[in-house]
Amino acid sequence: xKHTQGLAIPTTLQDxxxxxxxxxxxxDMQVGICSQIKTANEIVARIGQLLAAVRETxxxxxxxxxxxxxxxxxxxxQFRTALAWQGKDEPDNVEPWFLRDSSGFQIxxxxxxxxxxxxxxxxxMSALEGTPLAHALRDCGILSVAIVGxxxxxxxxxxxxxxxxxxxxxxxxxxxxxxGDEAAAQRSLETLRFxxxxxxxxxxTFSGLLxxxxxxxxxxxxxLRKRSTDATLETGAARPR
Length: 241
Description:
There is one protein chain. The chain is of the alpha/beta class. The protein has one domain (19-238): Rossmann fold. The protein has helices at 13-16, 31-34, 40-57, 76-86, 133-139, 152-165, 182-195, 203-238, and strands spanning 2-4, 7-9, 22-27, 60-66, 118-122, 144-150, 169-178, 199-201. β7, α7 (182-195) and β8 (199-201) form a beta-alpha-beta unit. α3 (40-57) packs parallel to α8 (203-238) and α6 (152-165) packs parallel to α7 (182-195). The longest helix is centred in the C-terminal third of the chain and has 36 residues, at 203-238. The mean pLDDT is 92.
């Protein structure tokens, strides 16, 4: 941690890996998206392991789901995206793949959100555009966001860059992020490294810091309770009868 002008400036993963001030964002791990990714099973398994570790610390978890609007509500941008993704030449030939009640819209069952975890639906690539996610993060005092999911080159890079613009520190857990195009995904990671806003790490390193946080919290709890008890006794002793 660096310090200047009365500010604490996080510069390392260890600086930001505080379960009370970090949230995990699971980006678009939906049935219809995972079915398009060759390494989806591996990514699902790795995210499942990370979720177990994160939940043990009490860190807040949020999920996103990419939503397709019915054709009557698909504007020009939505049609342009659908034409590109579906390889169609005419707007009338595209189909909304991720309608709210479709099976492809749902999060894969292996990663089902817990009741206390948030789910945000979006029609944009950035998880922070058009959703209440940024407001919720600020309201909970979150300073950094660890991001996993699919796909790095489509939605995770713009989400990370948007997060940095909103003064959240993005942490990309790269081996828990899938890609439709590996070369494009590597370019995205290199762009994020070059920009310098994001911290890029791997599951093992991140999980190790979480385990250390659990141990630190367990060791500090008795001392905090003792200080609280001592303060109560001192206050009680000073109180006039």
